[in-house]
UniProtKB/TrEMBL annotation:
Name of protein: Integrase catalytic domain-containing protein
Domain of life: Eukaryota
Database matches in PROSITE patterns: INTEGRASE
Transmembrane segments: none
Molecular-function GO terms, alphabetical: nucleic acid binding
Pfam family, one: DUF5641
PANTHER family listed in its UniProt record: GAG-LIKE PROTEIN (PTHR47331:SF1), PHD-TYPE DOMAIN-CONTAINING PROTEIN (PTHR47331)
Gene3D superfamilies recorded: Ribonuclease H-like superfamily/Ribonuclease H
Organism: Araneus ventricosus
GO-annotated biological processes: DNA integration
Domain Integrase catalytic, first and last residues per copy: 7-194
InterPro entries, per the entry: DUF5641 (IPR040676), Integrase_cat-core (IPR001584), RNaseH-like_sf (IPR012337), RNaseH_sf (IPR036397)
Length: 319
């Protein structure tokens, strides 16, 4: 694996250096009325290179004015960035051909976007082609979210208010993901999340009844937005934990759990933004010397789990 770019490892405030990616088109109605026709809209995803925090903004079309307005809203909420990276224009092909226009806006010096960036002294850079190690723009958790978001929103028509609610809740979910332990204390189960950099504490959500298996014709419009969020959380949460397991196995010997390591447990039917965090209290080696089972201490008690249900946090202090 290649070395990380300097922008990803140099300490700075959040979103000073970020990447931007896009999802779309989405079919969105100005208001939730049957006779109102839907129009194509897009979601801009800003990813902080240092903290892995994400920020979503809705774009009503692919005009330069809409993109500038999107940047202004983002800078007003998160602070102005000094460097913004985006995908190389050659990556916008096939089904994403419409998104190529966004790249053209900043590549042509006579465009309004280029003039705005120059006036604000913002450097816009394109990531090198075939460089998956370049920046949080390609962070696996965000890529997994995009996949599930496209699947669930492909043929779904929502209002502007509903799509804003959906992307705001998903933004909170992505920013709630644990990144690394906060201390080496074996009794401390605190983890660092992207939410700590944004609001100074972990991001939580209101617990609602699970309605994923409820037919849409039995749900109100607002309940259907909750169903969309729960659907994406359930699948993205599983993919993210699987990614942590793959990372651990790539960096360290498989089944190499250490006493005191901070871990996440794979549990079913967790509400959005809820993570089961614990520390390995002791390990139970098998006859071959490997560790198939471990006891994990959580806030709610001691659990015995197989290694397939345990995910070691990356950048663990004990390693």
């Amino acid at each position: 694996m290649g070395n990380f770019p300097a922008e990803r490892i140099t300490p700075t405030f959040h979103f000073n250096v970020c990447g931007v990616d896009f999802i779309g088109p989405l079919l969105v109605k100005p208001v939730a009325q049957r006779r109102i026709s839907a129009r194509k809209m897009y979601v801009a995803i800003f990813v902080c290179f240092v903290t892995k925090a994400v920020h979503f903004e809705l774009m009503i079309d692919l005009t330069s004015e809409a993109f500038i307005a999107c940047l202004k809203r983002f800078f007003a909420r998160r602070g102005k960035s000094s460097i913004v990276y985006s995908d190389n224009a050659t990556n916008f092909v096939g089904a994403q051909s419409e998104l190529k226009r966004l790249s053209d806006m900043v590549k042509k010096p006579d465009e309004n976007v280029s003039a705005y960036l120059a006036s604000e002294e913002i450097k816009w850079k394109f990531s090198p082609p075939r460089s998956p190690n370049f920046g949080g723009l390609y962070e696996a958790g965000v890529k997994s979210f995009k996949y599930h978001f496209r699947r669930v929103m492909k043929n779904t028509k929502v209002s502007v208010e509903e799509i804003l609610t959906i992307i705001s809740q998903i933004e909170g979910i992505l920013n709630s993901r644990p990144l690394t332990p906060l201390s080496c204390d074996p009794t401390d189960l605190s983890v660092l999340t992207a939410g700590h950099f944004l609001i100074g504490r972990p991001i939580t959500s209101v617990v609602e009844p699970e309605i994923i298996d409820t037919p849409d014709n039995r749900l109100s419009r607002w309940q259907r937005t909750t169903k969309v969020v729960q659907f994406i959380w359930k699948r993205w949460h599983r993919d993210y934990l699987n990614h942590l397991q793959q990372r651990s196995n790539w960096q360290f010997e498989k089944n190499d759990l250490k006493i005191g390591s901070l871990v996440l447990l794979k549990e079913d039917n967790l509400p959005p933004c809820k993570w089961v965090i614990g520390r390995v209290k002791d390990v139970i080696p098998g006859s071959d010397g490997k560790i198939p089972v471990a006891n994990v201490q959580t806030h709610s008690g001691l659990y015995r789990r197989g290694i397939s249900k345990i995910c070691v946090l990356p950048m663990n202090n004990n390693e």
